């Protein structure tokens, strides 16, 4: 009986590890990442909340969460992120929130164009006279609902 329990425990552990790796792979596939699985082009996700501005992070204060690498501008911000990463990770995998809502597409972002809404970080495309944050603000409720629905489709 003891061998059976030990075998069952080992099999359960292997399934857990396999599921965790699948989840990491899925996240990496869906997130907006640059080289080396780096999110937000190296900007500090905590600084958006604490400083209300985009601040570039440093490799020396990096944290890996679910296969995604984040850089931070301070050791304190890295520690804050580790305590509850889900609070600081950008919505829609760091893709443009407006594009996710308007067309359901993954569009790159300008890490300096952002909005904190209901305690969540939203990032936007902003190049060549096309600041999608301005358009988002005109119809935020509808675009957010559509973006939420679009993002779910990427995981199913």
Question: What this model shows, in words?
Answer:
With about 160 residues, the chain is an alpha+beta fold. The chain has helices spanning about 1-30, 45-50, 75-85, 85-90, 95-100, 130-140, 140-155, and strands at about 35, 40, 60-65, 70, 110-115, 120-125, 125, 130. Strands 1-2 form a two-stranded antiparallel sheet. The chain is globular and about 40 Å long. It starts with a helix and ends with a helix. The model is unreliable at about 5-20 (pLDDT under 50).
Secondary-structure topology with pairs:
Blueprint: H1 2-30, E1 33-34, E2 38-39, H2 45-50, E3 58-65, E4 68-72, H3 75-83, H4 85-88, H5 97-102, E5 110-117, E6 120-124, E7 126-127, E8 130-131, H6 132-138, H7 140-153
Antiparallel strand pairs: 1-2, 3-4, 5-6, 7-8
Give the tags.
156 residues; alpha+beta; 2 domains; 8 strands; globular
Quickly count the domains. 2
Uncertain regions spanning at least 5 consecutive residues: 4-22
- Tell me about the biggest sheet? 2 strands, antiparallel
Total number of strands = 8
Give the termini separation.
40 Å
Rounded Rg: 18 Å
In short:
By secondary structure, the protein is α+β, with helices and mostly antiparallel strands.
């Amino acid at each position: 009986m003891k061998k059976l329990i030990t075998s069952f425990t080992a099999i359960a552990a292997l399934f857990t590890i396999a599921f965790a790796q699948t989840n990491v792979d899925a996240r990496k596939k869906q997130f907006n990442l640059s080289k080396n699985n780096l999110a937000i082009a190296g900007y500090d996700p905590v600084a958006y909340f604490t400083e209300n501005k985009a601040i570039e992070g440093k490799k020396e204060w990096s944290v890996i969460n679910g296969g995604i690498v984040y850089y931070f501008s301070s050791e304190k911000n890295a520690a804050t992120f580790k305590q509850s990463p889900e609070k600081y990770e950008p919505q829609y995998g760091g893709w443009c929130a407006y594009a996710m809502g308007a067309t359901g597409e993954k569009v790159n972002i300008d890490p300096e164009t952002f909005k904190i809404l209901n305690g969540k970080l939203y990032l936007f495309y902003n190049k060549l006279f096309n600041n999608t944050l301005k358009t988002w603000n005109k119809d935020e409720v509808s675009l957010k609902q559509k973006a939420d629905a679009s993002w779910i489709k990427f995981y199913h």
